[in-house]
Design a protein that fits this description.
Distance between the termini: 29 Å
Radius of gyration: 22 Å
Number of domains: 2
CATH architecture of the largest domain: 3-Layer(aba) Sandwich
CATH topology of the largest domain: Rossmann fold
Strand order of the largest sheet: 3-4-2-1-5-6-7-8
Number of helices: 16
CATH class of the largest domain: Alpha Beta
Shape: globular
Order of helices and strands: EHEEEHEHEHHHEHEHEHEHEHEHEEHHHH
């Protein structure tokens, strides 16, 4: 029998949450990784974690992730996929179904950790009904995303539902017991005039990565991997889902200065999803056309969605990893690339750049200044000492600050600090097991 003190409820309602998630599917990416890896790490530390999500299509109601981690799915809003921007409308039905299950199953939890604003609404409702402490991780913040998106304001509002989102975020942030920001910049936004959250209610904990998968290898091994992936010459790589905020068009515009200075360099764009829809296919075609217009089409390699099991080797095959997002709450792909020993150039329009030392662990530049972003990339390829320094210290930075073990310990410490009532729960100290 698992006691309340040993059980944690994670909530991540949108996307395809599963033991083996199909990354690249709609709304299924870094946040799903965050929730799964944090849950598995907490389980290795002795806790039992239930990940509560939405049931749709033909998904099973329950799925085991590991010995102490389970995914529990509850329906709402019908059988079809619902985008995260509008899922909020079905959350009350989801909460009712979860409430009914908790009452009949007799499950009790030490605390709730919800992820993103749709799950925040659900988490706070369950916290209010059952008297469970609620800790919310926003991942992305509506006001920040609204202010950093290019395009027509009315079209963006219609697509992203910003007014409703920000209104709901404000309520969740006011009522939850603790907000877990991923960067100091997020803390500043949360405590600013639009949300006005007391700073003592905000704790900064960066996301983590799996150091058992992402780690550096020798130069000889990197060369072998590059050959196996049918790549040659200096490779600049960007990887991720197909979305305008990822700034792949800005990266293409940054390439002419690179190609002028590095004759045999190529850009590898591994973007999209495992089952791209018409909108994604059109965006990829737009990128192909832009590369053609810029006169660099023959030096840009478009690769399909990269399966998760190949991702680490793609990082290792690259000579520079580029994160060029218009807006990026954090940037886990860049941390994974750094962990693999790949020099990384990252956007200043996100959270990761504040965690690194420029020119030592990574280089950051503004992607809205394509020439400057391009020169930053070229400098890594031109100067072996710069390359070697970024490869070495970037990997060290990732291991020192961004592993899941560290994230889990920081989270439990924040919970203990914020809620006196949980001190006994946290001090019972189940058997801890270090990763790797």
């Amino acid at each position: 029998m698992v006691s309340e003190a040993d059980r944690i409820m994670m909530i991540s309602t949108h996307g395809y949450v599963s033991a083996e998630p199909e990354f690249g599917k709609p709304d299924t990416g870094g946040q799903v990784v965050f929730v799964l890896e944090l849950s598995k790490c907490l389980a290795r530390m002795g806790y039992h974690v239930d990940i509560l999500t939405r049931q749709f299509e033909d998904q099973a109601a329950e799925e085991a992730v590991s010995e102490r981690v389970n995914v529990l799915r509850f329906p709402c809003g019908g059988r079809d996929f619902i985008p995260k921007e509008t899922l909020c409308e079905a959350i009350p039905e989801w909460v009712e179904n979860v409430s009914r299950y908790l009452r009949t199953s007799g499950l009790h939890y030490g605390f709730i950790n919800s992820h993103y604003w749709d799950a925040g609404i659900a988490g706070q409702a369950l916290a209010n009904v059952f008297g469970i402490p609620h800790f919310h991780t926003p991942h992305s913040i509506g006001a920040w995303k609204r202010d950093n998106m290019d395009g027509d304001a009315e079209e963006l509002e219609a697509k992203y539902n910003f007014q409703h989102r920000i209104r709901e975020e404000k309520v969740v942030y006011d009522e939850c017991d603790l907000l877990i920001a991923t960067t100091p910049a997020q803390r500043e936004i949360l405590s600013g005039t639009e949300y006005d959250v007391p700073t003592e209610k905000i704790h900064v904990i960066p996301p983590g990565y799996d150091d058992r998968r992402f780690f550096p290898v020798s130069r000889a091994s990197r060369a072998t991997v590059k050959q196996e992936l049918d790549l040659e010459g200096p490779i600049i790589m960007a990887v991720g889902r197909m979305a305008k905020n990822k700034g792949y068009d800005l990266l293409l515009r940054a390439m002419p200065p690179v190609f002028q200075r590095i004759n045999d360099a190529r850009l590898l764009l591994a973007v999209g999803s495992s089952e791209p829809n018409e909108g994604e296919l059109q965006q990829i075609e737009d990128l192909r056309n832009l590369a053609r217009d810029l006169g660099i089409r023959d030096r840009v390699l478009f690769r399909d969605y990269i399966p998760d099991e190949l991702l680490a080797n793609y990082y290792r095959a690259a000579d520079v990893f580029a994160l060029s997002s218009r807006y990026e709450p954090f940037g886990m792909t860049a941390v994974e690339a750094m962990a693999c020993g790949t020099p990384t150039v990252i956007t200043t329009e996100g959270g990761l750049w504040e965690h690194v030392r420029w020119g030592v662990e990574a280089i950051y530049a503004n992607p809205f200044d394509p020439e400057a972003f391009g020169h930053a990339i070229a400098s890594v390829l031109q100067y072996p000492r710069v390359y070697a320094q970024l490869a070495r210290f970037g990997s060290q930075k990732s291991r020192a600050k961004f592993t899941w073990t560290g994230v889990a310990h920081q989270m439990l410490a924040a919970v203990e600090f914020r809620t006196d009532g949980l001190c006994e729960f946290l001090h019972e100290d189940p058997v801890h097991e270090e990763i790797g």
